[in-house]
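Box 3.1 A note on notation
Throughout this textbook, protein chains are presented in two layers. The first layer is the amino acid sequence; the second is a token string describing backbone geometry. Keep the layers aligned when reading.
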Amino acid sequence: MPSLLFNYIYLALFFPLAFIIEFYSGFLKYKLHPLNIMGRIALNIEKRLYTFSDKIISGIFFNVITILVISALFSAACFAIFYISPPLFYIFSLYILASFLSAGGLRHEALKIYKMLKTGDINGARENLPSLAGRDSKNLNPPEISRAVVESVSENTGDGIGSVAFYFTLGGIAGLMISKHCLIAEFLQVYFIIFLGVLSAVIYKTANLLDSIVGYKNKKYEKFGKFSARLDDALNFVPFRITALFMMLSIFILSIALNNYKNKSALLSFIKFRKNHPSPNGGQLESVTAGALNIKLGGVNYYSGVESRRPVIGFENYNQPDAESIIETIRIMEVSSIIIALVYTAALLMIVFHT
């Protein structure tokens, strides 16, 4: 059994380590990735519940059952692994949390499209865009491709980094409170903090995944996926707004070294355009990026051939995004991610050592 000091050191390093691991390995894709396994479980449950006549009720059951099944499987795996070896439990938990983050994956995919745009490979950029944005891409021009990448990286800074950190920290605090209330031995409290922290991230990421599977306003999922979309919106409501503040802080930091980031414009754009989005959350982050880079986001997209008109995010004198906007957005995402990792870790540690 590791010493108490080792446990606290590991807790302090846990989220930053998960971030670093994903950042340098996020480009890897493999069939047994935790999100792929979760997706297969969800699709199998969907097949059984979609046949129910009341699509709204069956959609609610789909979410509840899928979250319970995945949470139970994760919990059982944790207890079994902890019984075998506590250090192995740390490694397993770290791997699961890292698999939920997306800074490295976003950077890899966005840079791939940036390089294609810079070399004039427009068809290649169109073909690779679906890995980032779920819109029709075959007829997009370079500014539209750049806009899609900027929007996707901005929004995924929220659900791929900020929200995961938020729910890990929230679960960790709950684990601390429960362990103290139940008088769990101090050397076991850190295990419980990490377990409930990662379990909380599992629950959040499952709900987020279900929205990406069925949360569409089309004929098949308009009713069945309604609860999934609403649940994802609700879970992201608070963390996205916190992430927007971290993004503005990252823009302030970047503006000190680079002249192409506008602090005041980011704030003004956030105030005016944060609600110009179909979801209650996406505009919170896209408006910050639009202001920081003085570019227009939103507008017309196509999904499976169906036109979707979104309000424009950005002032009249703003420009259309270009390939360089992708690089600038990646920088915002990277600095924001580092701030998120450090601040949430600090907040958890402060609560642990002052409770």
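Residues 142-181 form the longest helix (40 residues). The beta strands are 297-303, 306-313.
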